[in-house]
């Protein structure tokens, strides 16, 4: 008679995720002392801002309650407190009406609550179009969305696909509702190509701006390859990286700010007696 299958040992109950988890830190062990020292200062700057952001968010009792309730009992890891405070402050100050969120999560609650407070202060009702490529998480996120915020949120499921802009290959949602977005939070989809698993960049922000005659502001989460491409496409004046936030702020930009790669020019990079490092330059169409 076969013996009964071995039972797995009981697992401890999973701790509810922290809605303000810090982003994963990049190791500097392979770099020299100057880079490691710079990283040391940056990490402490980021941690200090995160502590301050947590205190401010906790002081906003309605927002804090919505955030913590949404996080309970889910596998969401969350962004940082600094990210949530930044999104809240951006929406409250800029007053956008149509927000595109690439990647559903606690940030959806933060964005929607900021829109709700804007409306209470007399602004037109805004909407968060929140995109998600994971069908299971999409179902969980929809079930946990607080009822009082549902009038401000449109959750949309869309698979991710490979896409292109000029010589750049990235990932994007297959279908995003065409709306006059004036604010974008880019934190998805997952940047690994569904075709071959290559780690790419998030492409949707560029597509939104290419179609927009009205100014668009954007906040881009801690994805350095995406940062790099956006600076090439919009320039460093329009795509600004913040050390203390570990975020990129883009805008205001319209379709006229999207730069094209018309032709390559590497002459300024040529070195006769040193290593030549080639830089990609983009130009604005006349």
Radius of gyration: 21 Å
Number of beta strands: 9
Between the first and last Cα atoms, what is the distance in angstroms? 82 Å
Percentage of residues assigned to helices: 25-40%
Number of domains: 1
Integer average pLDDT: 89
Strand content: 15-25%
CATH topology heading: Rossmann fold
The CATH architecture designation is 3-Layer(aba) Sandwich
User: What structural class do the secondary elements suggest?
Assistant: alpha/beta
Looking at CATH, the homologous superfamily is: Vaccinia Virus protein VP39
Query: In the CATH hierarchy, what is the class?
Result: Alpha Beta
Strand order of the largest sheet: 3-2-1-6-7-9-8
Report the uncertain regions. 1-17
**N-to-C SSE string, H for helix and E for strand:** HHHEHEHEEEEHEHEE
Largest sheet report: 7 strands, mixed
Q: What general form does the structure show?
A: globular
- Number of helical runs? 7
Please describe what this structure looks like.
It is a single chain. The protein has 286 residues and is of the alpha/beta class. The chain has a single domain (33-257), classed as Rossmann fold, CATH 3.40.50. The protein contains seven helices and nine strands. The chain has helices spanning 33-59, 61-71, 81-94, 106-120, 135-144, 204-210, 224-234, and strands at 98-102, 127-132, 153-157, 160-165, 168-173, 183-186, 216-220, 239-242, 247-253. It has a seven-stranded mixed beta sheet with strand order 3-2-1-6-7-9-8, with helices on both faces. The chain has a two-stranded antiparallel sheet with strand order 4-5. The termini are far apart. Mean pLDDT is 89; it is low at 1-17.
